[in-house]
Write a structure and sequence with these properties.
- This protein is α+β, with helices and mostly antiparallel strands and about 325 residues long.
- The protein folds into two domains: about 55 residues, RNA-binding S4 domain (Structural Genomics Hypothetical 15.5 Kd Protein In mrcA-pckA Intergenic Region, Chain A); about 200 residues, Pseudouridine synthase (2-Layer Sandwich).
- Helices cover about 20% and strands about 20% of the residues.
- It contains seven helices and 16 strands.
- Strands 7, 8, 9, 10, 13, 14, 15 and 16 form an eight-stranded mixed sheet that branches. It has a four-stranded antiparallel sheet with strand order 3-2-5-6. Strands 1-4 form a two-stranded antiparallel ribbon.
- A hairpin with a 2-residue loop joins β11 and β12.
- It is elongated.
- The protein starts with a strand and ends in a 57-residue tail after the last helix.
Length: about 325
């Protein structure tokens, strides 16, 4: 079955989709002995010989989906010219195909997704899908309400205006305060730049959610596999561009409480089923609800015409 070359390389764990596209354009990939520079080239790996830097295309790896609690002082790249610690140093023998989904800067901590599924990683980070990222930000001072409104509506940065965001003042104490920010973009250091733009300084930055995935009491430097439910949720929100939305789920509210050591929230009880007058649930959509019984007095028959055509009761003969 034919597929786009860039997607094939990402699925085989050669590199992320963006990195695979760059490799193709730089002439590192050939098909049947011919260098191909168009990422959208269709190819059937069972019929054609695909080489990457002269080596055969690797078999499709077993999928890996993990979430890591990234500590401060680590980078998300595999190699660093300054010999700083990377997030891959925290894992036990990570395969070369494993990569970080997006980036967190050196001083930022929190949720970092790791996978060798290049197609999923591409969708989770592409702006058209608008996957939600949720941050707890400790800032200097307490932002005025008008500044919070500015952040919510969007502000103009050097590389363009920001999208509308959810911004709430969670806690304020003395010289600093905590903000909860939800955004749907992943530009470089965007949260820090947003806060600096309205005149405050970021003292601490922690991502507590990515596409609804949280740490669930995961200690800094530790990772865990995503549950089937979490993986299913990620796949659903990137099934179609533009379907993701800003929302504060119970898991995110719990993550906020855990990070700030506040009382844990309680789950909202589901609304009771609506029952008819006989105590039975209404039928499913597409069926009419049962009509309520009339409780008024029966209509008087005085003056009405009976079966004998008379205007009143029959006279006894």
């Amino acid at each position: 079955m034919s597929d786009h070359l860039v997607k094939l390389l990402a699925e085989r764990g050669v590199a992320s989709r963006r990195a695979s596209e760059r490799m193709i354009r730089e002439g590192q990939v050939s098909i049947d002995g011919h260098v191909v520079r168009e990422p959208g080239t269709l190819v059937d790996p069972h019929e054609a010989r695909v080489l990457v830097d002269g080596k055969p295309l690797p078999p499709k790896p077993n999928p890996i989906y993990r979430v890591l609690n990234k500590p401060k002082g680590t980078i998300t790249s595999r190699n660093d010219p300054h010999d700083r610690k990377t997030v891959f140093d925290l894992l036990d023998d990570p395969p070369t195909s494993l990569g970080a989904v997006g980036r967190l800067d050196f001083q930022t901590e929190g949720v970092l997704l790791l996978t060798n599924d290049g197609e999923l990683a591409y969708r989770l980070t592409h702006p058209s899908y608008g996957v939600t990222k949720t941050y707890l930000v400790k800032v200097s001072g307490t932002p005025e309400p008008r500044k919070i409104v500015q952040l919510q509506r969007g502000i103009k940065l050097d590389d363009g205006p920001t999208r509308p965001a959810t911004v709430d003042l969670v806690e304020s104490a003395g010289p600093s305060s905590w903000l909860l920010i939800q955004i749907q973009e992943g530009r470089n250091r965007i949260v820090r730049r947003m806060i600096e733009h309205v005149g405050h300084k970021v003292l601490k930055l922690k991502r507590i959610g990515f596409g609804g995935i949280t740490l669930r009491n995961l200690e800094p430097g530790h990772s865990r596999a995503l549950t089937a439910g979490e993986l299913g949720r990620l796949r659903r929100i990137v099934r179609t561009p533009g379907k993701a939305k800003l929302e504060m789920t119970f898991d995110l509210r719990r993550a906020v409480a855990e990070a700030l050591r506040q009382p844990l929230p309680k789950r909202e009880e589901s609304a009771p089923s609506k029952l008819d007058e006989n105590g039975q649930p209404y039928r499913k959509k597409g069926w009419a609800r049962p009509k309520a019984k009339k409780t008024g007095k029966p209509r008087s028959r005085v003056g009405s015409r009976g079966r004998n055509g008379g205007g009143g009761p029959k006279k006894r003969r």
